[in-house]
Specification:
Radius of gyration: 50 Å
Number of strands: 4
Largest sheet: 2 strands, antiparallel
Structural class: mainly alpha
Shape: elongated
Strand order of the largest sheet: 1-2
Number of helices: 54
Helix content: 40-55%
Distance between the termini: 109 Å
Length: about 1350
């Protein structure tokens, strides 16, 4: 009340200042510590002063809202009062420097407009009148006299100037002396200022005093009817008596005088001064006795420190009665404003004094800790910048536990300081600054490196636990031949023998790269150190054996199935002291004891609770400390004996109202971001400084990405020890678990979850900042030179788990984090693999499951349309596959390695290439228009690179196993082409993965099985996409893979297989993949003719060399394959500008088949090839794509042709000439039997047929490509008719379960476009009974 009113002295500030002056005048040092009694005194006083400003959380929130609603906070009002008080002090200094210019100085000061107009004479308070500035100046000198320089005031009053005379007159008028004698009047008058020393000045002042006193005394006596008590008859008598009183006061109280006046002497000196008469003796005697007993003392200033006399107190009271002084106390509307004002002025020195006091009290028995906690609480409530200093003090005292082994009493102080800091952090989380958060992160990390947070964190996410439980492969780096041989014949790993100390050595087998240093080599012990340590309980005194993988699975992830059941090695228990841990650290017991009592675990639980399903019902969702009572003392103080947890009495939990609001969420995200930045702070000494582009995430999506800058380093106190995260494992583990337990739960919001966690309000900018910090932390982990296996596995699993959580964050504007977020992290791993090729081999299973889980979950909710991401993921799986050039393993582990290779091959690489989003990988609409185009250089480059790498990997895996490489490729192509031909969403692709996944053994299948597979796929798949661009992209991908398949199997088509190996089944595989029921529809879209041409060209080029050397059984299948593919895709092929060339290639191939059959005297091959050729010609001629032209050199060719033949395509003539060369007379026979003479003459003369690029008429259905055409005679054989019953034939089904496009329903051949049966599928649609008749009809 006093400190917030400029008219009154700052009593609280003066009192606190005097207390702090006791310590700060001579600050204590280590050689001269602060005495205990002085520390207790200062702590007690400051602690009780600070308690006046404490508010609980609810009241603090209401105060802040009230200030915001009023528009002007209480702090502004108090600061304005202090400005006025400063103006008063400035005016008083000017008055003291130059008393003569007092009025001028007042009129120029800021007080002239603030000082009220007091009542004076006949003028009421506030009533305007003459000499207003004089009235205000006198009011200031009378009512704010606690800081008035009395001597300067007397000098101003004694000046021979009009301003001084008016000021003295107004000053004297403020006193009420009527009922008092002159002694009492002079006593109150002289206690209000100091008389000057010059006699003339005293004379002027006393003359004014005498006249005013006389007039007041006379008026009082007359008004009260006490004329008899009037003892003065003239103002001069009062003037003379006033001088006499001053002389009497000096005489009676001057210590240098030996002889003093008596009463008689005093009366004698005053004879005849009352107009020749004497003043009554009783009055003079009363004056003498009063002066003799009580000296009239004039204080040097108006400071209340010098005390208040009764006369001065009476003067205050009469000023209040007259309306000059307002004695009412100030009622403040906001305590928070007063608290902030107090901390602005006294917070820093008070904190310094309390720190000195706490340093002198190792057991924290005094009130110093209580005071420091209150300083921090008040500063956090007021959001003062000085709160960083208060938090730093608690931080430094608390962090002593990490320095050296402490005694029990010192541990009490450390624990109490940490406990206070964590309580304030939770209660006022939105008010914490970044520096305070970094201090909190530092303490969290220091505890985390000892692995004490298992019980305070929620259970592992099932997906994360499943990844960490993936068994590790026991491998060693590749090296020299001798070591490779010894490693192969061994059954257990052993130490490296060929690496030098500097990491180089002659035994290194990595081309062009030096061998990695010993500390970076993947561990080759009997089991990974982290395979089952997610429930790693580390007791402080008694070591406990860690749980097995089975026990851990039951505890952390109920119902999570293990994917690697076959030949799964038994998981050994982990050694008691893991590599890189602080299990045997001497400080470990005391740190664990402090952690159990400092409530950091409760803080972490409160952080996580609002993000969980049952956050609202959790009693420990948040923890807040309520202000303690003033007279109760601290619960921590005075404790002694027993364990530390018994010494520190915990207060009841109180829920925090602000735990779930936006500000708290944002601050928690900053805390989590800083926790990941600690990984950078602890790894900078072991990592080469990267460029900014490598350290920060890639953000390619439009519109313009957010402003991403390198996060600032942690702002830690200068006296704090350097942050040491050891190998980063425990810190990373804690950060990831907090991330997945909080932010990882937000992905449920995209599913429309109505759980309480859906109300979490988070800021997209803060979430993007978090994503950047997570990226930076993981980047530095991946680049650590001392990266150990357990840290690698955790970071690898955390990379994709964090990517899944961040990439699925969505606000109204869209997704918050870019798809490019994981790209640079994967690239960092790949760069490291250049020098350490074995790094990811041990974690191959984990890598596979992590990538699959990431792609599966993200693609179901977001389009993975970033080609660079797919390239990075594919390359990561590629480099994780165990091969002899990357790692070595014992011969006893060959089966296990082969199983892992097969899993990475099928469930990883091939599965990834077949994903629907990979085919749609275009970021912008402009690039999207190029989907499926031959000019799409990015897609061409990617597929060329991916398929080449796939082939190289197959050769490397099966380098010594005969045809194993080609078998791997055949299985991959079969699986990949089967996936690419189907139109599926990402969810359908994932759901269908288990049903479509091949068995453990390669199954190339036979032709009927292939058609059966086609029928099954055709009956269960979704309809084709209506987007031409997506259809074109899938067609392009399918064609590229098909061409690659044909390229790589060309050497083995028709090649005999060793007797001890099963058949490769190349042609059945080609039949199953190339003749899939959806291929014609796939190649019927945009750019389809180009891709159909690529496939048919490659197919012909592969089969052409086979015609001369392959077995006849192979040629029979090849004839059927070529004919079916050509006729099935005829509609797309004939739209290509080079259709004539394509037809001639196919024609020559068919003629070679016929010739081979004739040469080998194989009637079956010759007959089948001939009939297929007839069907070819019949379809082309009936659809008017090909016209009959008499071959050159025949009789009909010599006849003159009527009409114009210039529009006739050249390849028509070449077709019949080629046929005539291989099969003389075939053309004439065909023209007579099939076309008839009239049709032949008309076609040859008029040239009505379309050119090579002319499209098929719209009324011809796609099924026309599968039948001979309407011109076929009833007795004409159908393609494949001569084949065996098991072989699928053109136009009829291989079995009743496999409907084939255009199959015949009865013995009579169906016409073009006619449905095969009621259940047959035609062009993806069900046939109906009323199918249209012949197209020609």
């Amino acid at each position: 009340s006093f400190d917030c009113d400029w008219r009154r002295p700052a009593l609280l500030e003066h009192l606190a200042g005097k207390v702090m002056q006791l310590v700060l005048e001579r600050p204590p040092t280590s050689e001269r510590p602060l005495p205990g009694n002085l520390a207790q005194l200062c702590s007690a006083v400051l602690g009780r002063l600070l308690s006046a400003f404490l508010l609980d959380a609810a009241a603090w929130q209401q105060e802040s809202e009230k200030d915001a609603a009023n528009g002007k906070s209480e702090l502004d009002r108090i600061q304005h009062q202090w400005k006025l008080r400063t103006a008063v002090w400035e005016f008083m200094n000017k008055l003291e420097d130059s008393p003569k210019k007092a009025r001028a100085a007042f009129e120029k000061s800021a007080l002239a407009d603030v000082v009220p107009l007091p009542p004076l004479g006949d003028l009421a308070a506030g009533e305007a009148g003459p000499e207003e500035s004089v009235r205000k100046l006198v009011w200031l000198l009378r009512c704010v006299n606690h800081c008035i320089p009395y001597a300067a005031t007397g000098e101003f009053f004694g000046q021979p100037k009009e301003d001084s005379e008016k000021a003295v007159a107004a000053f004297v008028e403020t006193f009420d002396w009527g009922p008092f004698d002159i002694e009492r009047a002079m006593r109150s008058f002289l206690e209000a200022f100091l008389l000057p020393k010059e006699a003339q000045q005293i004379d002027r002042i006393l003359k004014t005093f005498a006249h005013v006193y006389y007039q007041k005394h006379v008026d009082y006596c007359k008004s009260s009817g006490k004329e008899g008590s009037l003892y003065l008859k003239h103002p001069d008598a009062a003037y003379t008596l006033a001088f006499s009183v001053i002389l009497l006061n000096s005489d009676q109280h001057n210590p240098k005088l030996k002889k003093r006046m008596t009463v008689k002497d005093f009366i004698s000196n005053n004879r005849g001064i009352n107009e020749g008469e004497n003043i009554p003796e009783d009055v003079q005697t009363r004056i003498f006795q009063s002066i003799q007993k009580n000296e009239i003392k004039t204080p040097s200033s108006g400071s209340l420190v010098e005390g208040i006399s009764p006369s001065r107190w009476e003067d205050f009271i009469q000023l209040s009665r007259k309306g000059w002084r307002d004695n009412s106390l100030v009622s403040s509307p906001s305590l928070s404003g007063q608290a902030q004002a107090f901390t602005d002025r006294l917070g820093k020195p008070a904190r310094t004094v309390l720190e000195f006091a706490l340093s002198a009290d190792s057991a924290a028995h005094a009130d110093a800790l209580r005071g420091m906690e209150r300083v921090l609480q008040i500063m956090l409530q007021c959001r003062c910048a000085e709160a960083d200093g208060a938090a730093e003090g608690l931080f430094l005292f608390g962090s002593e536990v990490f320095h050296e082994v402490q005694g029990q009493t010192t541990l009490v102080r450390s624990t109490s300081c940490l406990r206070s800091f964590f309580r304030m952090a939770l209660q006022y989380l939105p008010a914490m600054s970044m520096k305070q958060l970094h201090s909190l992160v530092y303490l969290t990390v220091q505890f985390a490196v000892y692995g004490f947070f298992e019980r305070s964190l929620p259970q592992l996410e099932p997906s994360f636990a499943k990844l960490l439980l993936c068994p590790a492969l026991v491998v060693d780096p590749p090296t020299g031949r001798v070591y490779s041989f010894l490693r192969k014949i061994s059954t257990a790993p052993f130490k490296m023998l060929s690496f030098a100390e500097d990491g180089g050595g002659a035994g290194s087998s990595v081309k062009g790269a030096a061998a990695p240093p010993p500390e970076t080599i993947a561990r080759s012990k009997s089991a990974p150190s982290d395979a089952v340590q997610e429930e790693d309980l580390r007791a402080p005194t008694t070591p406990k054996r860690r749980q097995s993988a089975e026990d851990l699975m039951d505890n952390t992830s109920q119902g999570v199935e293990e994917d690697f059941d076959t030949d799964k090695p038994e998981m050994p228990e982990i050694e008691e002291a893991a590599e890189g841990s602080l299990y045997n650290e001497p400080l470990r017991p005391q740190i664990q004891e402090v952690l159990e009592a400092c409530e950091l675990e409760l803080l972490l639980k409160a952080f996580v609770a609002p993000w969980q399903h049952k956050a609202c019902a959790s009693p420990s969702a948040s923890l807040a400390a309520s202000p303690r009572e003033d007279n109760g003392g601290s619960g921590d103080a005075g404790a002694g004996g027993g364990q530390l947890s018994d010494q520190l009495q915990r207060e009841p939990d109180a829920p925090s109202a602000a735990a779930r609001d936006s500000a708290s969420t944002t601050v928690f995200l900053c805390y989590l971001s800083s926790l990941f930045l600690a990984l950078r702070a602890g790894a900078q000494n072991s990592v080469q400084r990267p460029s900014k582009e490598q350290e920060l995430p890639w953000w390619p999506e439009p519109p313009v990405p957010p402003s991403i800058s390198t996060p600032m380093p942690l702002q830690l106190p200068k006296r704090a020890l350097a942050l040491n995260i050891l190998d980063g494992y425990e810190t990373l583990r804690l950060a990831l678990r907090l991330l997945l337990a909080t932010v990882g739960q937000l992905k449920e919001m995209s599913k429309g979850s109505k759980s309480p966690k859906a109300v979490i309000d988070w800021d997209p900018a803060a979430m993007q900042e978090l994503s950047v910090c997570v990226h930076v932390g993981l980047f530095y982990i991946f680049n650590r030179r001392d990266l150990c296996e357990r840290t690698l596995r955790t970071s690898l699993a955390g990379l994709f788990q964090a990517a899944t959580a961040l990439l699925l964050l969505e606000k109204h504007e869209g997704f918050v984090v870019s798809l490019g977020w994981p790209v640079r992290l994967v690239e960092a791993l790949l760069r490291r693999l250049d020098s350490e090729p074995q790094l990811l081999v041990s974690a191959a299973r984990l890598t596979l499951e992590a990538v699959r889980g990431f792609v599966t979950e993200v693609s179901c909710r977001r389009d993975l349309d970033l080609p660079e991401l797919w390239r990075a993921l594919f390359q990561l799986l590629l480099r994780s596959t165990p091969t002899s050039s990357r790692a070595l393993w014992p011969g006893a582990k060959d089966k296990e390695i082969e199983l892992v290779q097969l899993q990475l091959w099928r469930r990883g690489l091939v599965w990834l290439l077949g994903h629907p989003h990979l085919q749609d990988g275009r970021r912008d609409e402009e690039a999207s228009s190029e989907r499926g185009s031959p000019n799409d250089t990015d897609a061409n480059a990617f597929w060329s690179w991916a398929l080449t790498e796939l082939t190289a990997l197959a050769q490397e895996i099966a380098s010594t196993r005969g045809t194993a490489a080609i078998r791997l490729l055949l299985g991959a192509y079969k699986q990949l082409l089967g996936r690419l031909v189907r139109e599926q969403s990402a969810k359908e692709y994932t759901d269908d993965d288990a049903a479509l996944e091949p068995d453990a053994e390669e199954d190339t299948g036979s032709a009927p099985e292939a058609l059966e597979e086609n029928a099954r796929c055709g009956s269960t798949s979704s309809t084709f996409s209506s987007k031409p661009s997506r259809l074109a992209a899938r067609a392009a991908a399918w064609s590229r893979v098909a061409v690659s398949m044909l390229t790589h199997i060309a050497p083995v088509v028709g090649r005999p297989v060793p007797a001890d190996e099963p058949e490769l089944g190349v042609l059945p595989l080609l039949t199953q993949t190339l003749l899939h029921v959806r291929v014609p529809l796939l190649l019927a879209g945009p750019h389809g003719p180009h891709w159909a041409r690529c496939v048919i060209e490659k197919l012909v080029s592969v089969l052409r060399p086979v015609t001369s050397a392959a077995p006849l059984s192979v040629l029979r299948d090849a004839v059927s394959l070529v004919s079916k593919f050509f006729l099935a895709n005829l509609q797309s092929l004939q739209q290509h500008e080079s259709f004539g060339q394509l037809w001639l290639m196919v024609l020559r191939l068919m003629l070679q088949f016929i010739k081979r059959g004739a040469d080998e005297r194989d009637a079956e091959l010759e007959e089948v090839a001939t009939e297929i050729l007839k069907n070819f010609l019949g379809v082309l001629v009936s659809s008017k794509v090909l016209g009959f032209v008499s071959p050159q050199g025949t009789k009909q060719a010599d006849k003159p042709v009527e009409g114009d033949t210039s529009n006739r395509p050249v390849w028509w003539q070449m077709t019949w000439d080629c046929i005539e060369m291989f099969m003389p007379g075939f053309g004439d026979e065909f023209s007579k039997s099939v076309l008839g003479e009239a049709a032949s003459a008309e076609a040859s003369v008029l040239g009505e047929a379309a050119s090579a690029g002319a499209p098929v008429p719209d009324d011809i259905a796609p099924a026309a490509a599968f039948v001979m055409g309407e011109a076929a005679v009833a007795g004409a054989p159908v393609v494949g008719e001569a084949a065996s019953e098991e072989a699928p034939v053109l136009g009829e089904a291989a079995s009743s379960r496999a409907p084939v496009l255009g199959e015949a329903a009865s013995e009579e051949a169906s016409v073009v476009g006619e449905a095969a049966s009621a259940g047959a599928l035609i062009s993806g649609e069900a046939a109906s009974a009323d199918a249209p008749e012949s197209v020609a009809d």
